[in-house]
Amino acid sequence: MSTVDIRRTGAVVVGAGIGGLATALRLAPMPVTVLSATSLGEGAASAWAQGGIAAAWSADDHPGLHAADTLAAAGGIADPAIVDTVTQAAPACIEDLIALGVCFDRGADGSLRLGREGGHHRHRIAHAAGDATGSEIMRALLVAARRTPSITLVEDAVAQELAVVDGAACGVIVRHRGAAVLFAADAVVLATGGLGGLYQHTSNPVTARGRGLALAARAGAALADLEFVQFHPTALDAGRDPMPLVTEALRGEGAVLLDKTGAPFMATLHPLADLAPRDIVARAVWRKQLAGDRVYLDARQAVGAAFPMRFPTVYGACRTAGVDPATMPIPIAPAAHYHMGGVAVDARGRSTVSGLWAVGEVASTGLHGANRLASNSLLEALVFGARAAADIASAAPRTASPQSAARSRVAGVDDPHDPAGMARLRRRMSASVGVERDATGLRQALDELNTLRRTASSRSLADAALVGALVSAAALRRRESRGGHCRTDYPASAPALARRSLLTLRDLDSSETTTPRMKEIVS
What whole-number distance in Å separates Cα of residue 166 and Cα of residue 99? Predict the structure, then answer.
């Protein structure tokens, strides 16, 4: 391709999940273009979210209690001010979604039916359609976006590179149905989701490979807390890729984890037993498997015959795998599920690159710290979508022209597929940067991924390898265990390292072991 089509918009949002759509709706009436890499509603992890939205809604709850649970799960490095901001805003988010037409589950008296999940000390999780909350919220947001005149939705638009002029983001170059297109804008918002697809075992769409992180890194943005990857402890262990999620809400209803003998084991490991924070449960399941044990989730007494109505998504996945969860324990295993790290942003969603904001899983706001509390992710996307939109609306328009930057990069827009290379990358990430890590494995991963990102035959593989290398480097440099980051060679948490980490592409390229920016975290 030798030419580029240039389209001008007020703001361009890369990603059409809950974070991206919420931002676009809040920006109205500013002209906004929302780019979806696939058909709308497909390929977005938001639509797969079985868990709900946490909010202090009931009479016995309070945002302060929600904040306390969030901080307790976060491994000592969450930002208390951000935690307060998000938990205080949570009830209003529920109200806004109800106003948009989201059909939350309700009891016989018409009140919201609130569930409980790991790490929560109150029933505060609002669900929709049982275990299809994300899908229901996406439905309502897409209906609202399609009827909003200021929003243009573009499908099959794969972001290739951010246009940056004089240190400021001023657009995004995409591959759109075989053509190169530059969407020039005063504001660029990344809402591209997470990176679970980098792992061989994941509950995310396999296309969720951290492309937003690669875009931001190549543009010079700082990334934060990349080493913290959350592995959901209960994915259906039935040989599927991706692995169907078995929602934590089942344990909130009383389901228990069993070893191969049929004995429960979490009560001896944590005061909250099966409702312990996810990192603790995931490691417990992982260690059982390393010892040759098979682990099951038993919901026969807790849910039983009500399974098809209460948890239709899980029920369908189990029956497809030949398991009747109403009468049989469910075989489960940990799977890469959520990334606490991401593009470093402030309380307004601003990155360290002028003109670039990030919301949702691609962002690192400081809410989750080292371990995300269940059902805080959709909440964060909604809160920061609104905060980023308010900041963008208040910013003065800019006059930078990104055309020359776009033309110089059009030749790199073609993206041939390399399934063998991606499979190799995924195996390495699971083997060396998974539930438990050590220096030997992390160095192997870093060496292999750095080589792959420089020799890859496609942009998508190069970007995936870059993100994997960044995660590996951050994990290698944090010489302790904390939250979702578990080092078997440094099993204890170090009080002096109870801080967030920062990393840039320049840091990664300057050294593959220790860089100036990261020295303080390993000293």
Answer: 42
